[in-house]
Specification:
The complex is a heterodimer of chains A (740) and B (175). In chain A, a hairpin with a 2-residue loop joins β3 (81-89) and β4 (92-93). In chain A, α20 (570-583) crosses α22 (627-641) and α22 (627-641) packs across α23. Helices cover 36% and strands 14% of the residues of chain A. In chain A, the strands form six sheets. In chain A, strands 1, 9, 10, 11 and 14 form a five-stranded antiparallel beta sheet that branches. In chain A, strands 2, 3, 4, 5 and 6 form a five-stranded antiparallel beta sheet that branches. Chain A has 740 residues and is α+β, with helices and mostly antiparallel strands. Chain A has 25 helices and 18 strands. A four-stranded mixed beta sheet of chain B has the order 1-2-3-4. Chain B starts with a helix and ends with a helix. The relative contact order of chain B is 0.12. Classes of the chains: A alpha+beta (740), B alpha+beta (175). At the A-B interface, α1, β12, β16 and α22 of A face α2, β2, β3 and α5 of B.
Amino acid sequence: MRLRSLPFFLITSLSLLASAPWAHAATPPDQYHFDSFFPLLKFIPPPRLKVYEHLDQSRTYEHTRLNIISQVTSCENSSDCIAEFQHCSDSGCGPTQTGHGTCRQSDPDEPGTCEYLQNPTCTAQVGSTDYSRPNEISYPKEQNEWQRFDYIGSNNSISWGTHNLALSLCDRAELQLIALTQANQTKRTLDQTAEWPLGWVDWEYKTVSGQTLLEIWNHLGGLQGIGQALTDAHDTFLVSGGDNVVDVSESRQQLCQQVSTQIHSPAIRALLESPIYPPAESKGFARCSICAEGICLSSAAGEALYTDLSIRASLAAALNDLFMTYPLEEARTTLQQAIEHNPLLPYTQIATKDAVPSHLTIILHPQVAGLPEPFTLAALGHIFDYQELMNKYGYKLMEQPTAVKGGAFVTSIGQTLINFAYGVVSLFVDLSSHLITIPEPMAQSILELQNPVYRTRDTSDELQKDSYESLSTLIDSTRELYVGKPLDAGESRRRLAYLTCQDPDYSAPQETIIESYALGTRIGCNKDTDTTTTSVCDGQEFTKITGDLATPTSDKAIQIFGSMRGFLTPELLKIYATAGEITGVPCEILAGIHYIEADLNPTGSLVSGRPLGTPEPDAGGKVFNTLLDTAIYAGTELKAKVGGNLASVSDYVTALSRYNGGGNANCQAGYPWPIPYTGCPKTDEGEDDPYSVNYLDARHSTMYLLYCADLTACEPQVFERDGSYTFALTMYQQMTGVNL
Amino acid sequence: MTDLSFFRNKTVLFVAGISLGILILVVIFSPKRNVSPPPSSPPLASVYRPELINLGEQKRREAAAYRTSITDRLPIYVEGFKTSVGIKTTINIFSLPSDPVETIHFEIYGPSYLVADASEFTNPNLTAFKESHLHGLELMKDQGIDPQKLIFIYADKEYVRNTTRAWLDKLGLAP
């Protein structure tokens, strides 16, 4: 027997196991985030730890008194077990609740009794948003966090990300080399310590040529030493809060020389294809709990992670941006303050053993004594279930979030389900639920680092408030929300609102030519006036509408038009005319829509009057960035509402009513209040809708508004504005002199 | 000449078999390498629309492909549909180039969506909507369109959308 062969096979097997490409994933497993990264949050001072609540904000469990209004107890004659009840406190009673029980018959000879039980659950699909996609979102560079800086566009360099435009080749190469070095450091750290550093980088991220970051690193040769020196200096600088500046000028010089002299070499080409900011897939935390009569429970089934695909690169970019925008001293102050608020911050950018959880646990100190050990999501969630515990440790919830629709993708990456069941309790218990999200360490600080740069572009009004702090995060009870983290929707609004076309950060997502860039006529800059159409708004198209166009509108309508006429500037008329040419809807009709939606405000959309650049709920959340876009939308929708056939006055009146949803129709059935309108029955759909025909003539002289701003029906109120068709017809008559 | 007797040794064969078995188990049970997605080909249209928010990419792609295949059978526009409660409605099924590629408009005009009461006993608008909606589904089937494969936009105005969604849920007609 060749026993000597036994070790050979065993060693071969073991070495294959150890070196198998599947031995390590390029991102920490989910449980690692729970077990190793989450406990590090205890090092963030409690008042500074951002925690968002998406369901019941209240943490006081006032003892309530059960008031049973009616309750079926016996189901002898019927199996319907229904109870109506309220929970009452000293301050009053809550809404009447209706509950359904089940009929239980323990003895066939005895009548059944109603049993009122429930098993409350808390479910949420924890999604993730992807702010790294460059395509198909309204403003890739504004909403795309890291590729806003880093985007490699087309062969037209103006379409590239701002740091690709603003930084020299050498500057970019330095950042790329640091990212590659950190990718290698991540793997080394993991191999040596079996721990992931807080600033881990996905070394298996592939560049456009299909090489992973690690493969590129392995072929860098002498550049590896330079990368190491630059990264060490970067780490030292951050850990010291900017106090320790290591002279790396010689390393930079060597790098720049190699890049410029060997730019065609495969290694340098691969280096320059790498991302300038490190990619990684970070995770934040979510937890759901249910409180019955003030006793709050949760379990592992109530906990989940959400994925943040871009925060690692975004924070690196934000730090770089900060030091490029401000003088060293001022930027350093901002950084040190951010570190004071979040001691984990510098380590989120470091991939060596200095940033592994076990080392951080030694060098950092919990900010408050007596925190539960182990410091888990369950433990912190328990604290956040009770106000007295929150007060004890100094934790607080962020302001009740405002649901704002952003424009990024909801991605299926890392979607998990929270599905926690409390257990069987009486139907009559007073219940509340909590659903909290806790951003991971990088997202805890990114606002603080980005804002100083954004404030350089804010108007004086905006400097007074930071409303972005209250923007909601991933989980929302309506499930319509998909803003990934605070600020992003606000960020895109700020950048859209305040950037000028001379600002390199604002550059159109579409390609543009150098001439347009230099002249400030890029698409998105002057799209409203930069058109090739020669259309004018002169009534020519309006005359083609069949029906009575000659009978003057009411005196009231003429008076209102007169007061608005000054707002019909040549620029606005050109926009209506251009949209009219594109859609086939007369410019006067579009003006009528713009009047009724936005009072002819050039920054208010034809969709709803909302400011341009903000999501439009009435268009499913779409963002329109120019008035012309909204006018084209309005014209297109208007035609579609009548199957494409807009020919007669009646067609337009109907289409306009449908454009607004038809809810204001004064002759409608079943309205909860009597509608005093005297013009019923209507002759055609929309003929009874003030949105279309208010003040058109005597028949339509007193019409009623039924739809209130809170999306509900309201008591009829006299409508005191022109209908949209009325305005259009008046405009046509007054501006062409017809029948004056 | 090569001595192959080594490989005929039972112990050698046994150890080799064990090693091979271990390797096979490692292949089967090792976690998949978790790589970041490579730079992507142009993705589907933005999911700003609430109708698309909770849908997976596969479902969206299927809906987009199906929509493309039936666009030539649209629009379906029927005016003056008489409902049992005396409300005449218009059924409009169409698509617009500016819409997300996965979606189709399925709009019904005539009922008042401001009266959102979800009881047919008290709200004739709900009955009118129900009958029109069912008729719209029939119209689609008559054109060889399978409504189950489509993602519908029931309205643009938010209040109309909210009411429609509530009614569809109440009627058990929600997709």
